[in-house]
Specification:
The protein is of the alpha/beta class. It has six helices and twelve strands. The strands form three sheets. The chain has a seven-stranded mixed β-sheet. Strands 5-6-9 form a three-stranded mixed β-sheet. One of its GO terms (molecular function) is glutaminase activity.
């Protein structure tokens, strides 16, 4: 499998390390040529507004949207979740707007409010997985066809819709590979 990692901001090298540790090829997606040869795409954290502007400026925005709408699996972590969302609280415009969710930016507070928690997510692993939240969003609205995968303290932090996965947290910032295995399995079911 060739798994792309959008290489603009965020934990790009960490996602690449996890993909390669699982025996798959990781592709740094930086331009329109890179997006054409991958089986799935990870949208890592960072600053969603800046990432979105770069996607528009490079011509990647519409190509990524088209690939997702054609069934390419995608996983957005933190800012990646915001990029996927059709609606962002207190904002007029969404970014890629392909996933029927409403998100709240920095829902847990600022950088100093970041935290980590170990939780069992049965769909992903029967053992506790470390969940790292850094200026994390969470989901405040879910449309038809969106399935909740996990909640933390009553807040929706992981969802699936078709071949789209979104998480508020950063599995790439831990040594645990379970979420990357889970996403790669989604990619293999094409």
């Amino acid at each position: 499998m060739k798994i792309g990692v959008l290489s603009i901001q965020g934990g790009v090298s960490e996602h690449i390390h996890h993909i390669e540790a699982l025996g798959h090829e990781a592709i740094k997606v930086k331009n329109v040529y890179d997006i054409k040869c991958i089986d799935g795409l990870i949208l890592p954290g960072g600053e969603s507004t800046a990432i979105s502007k770069i996607l528009r400026d490079t011509g990647l925005e519409n190509l990524i949207k088209d690939r997702i709408n054609d069934g390419m699996p995608v996983w957005g972590t933190c800012a990646g979740m915001i990029l996927l969302a059709k609606e962002i609280e207190n904002e007029d415009k969404a970014h890629l707007a392909v996933m029927d969710i409403k998100v709240r930016r920095n829902a847990y507070g600022s950088q100093v409010d970041s935290f980590s928690k170990d939780e069992v997510i049965e769909e992903v692993s029967d053992k506790a997985i470390p969940l790292v939240f850094i200026r994390a969003p969470y989901i405040t609205g879910i449309g038809e066809g969106v399935r909740v995968v996990h909640k933390v303290d009553g807040n929706v932090v992981a969802v699936i819709q078709k071949k789209m996965l979104a998480t508020s947290f950063h599995p790439e910032l831990t040594k645990n590979l379970e979420f990357h295995k889970y996403f790669i399995n989604m990619c293999m079911k094409l």
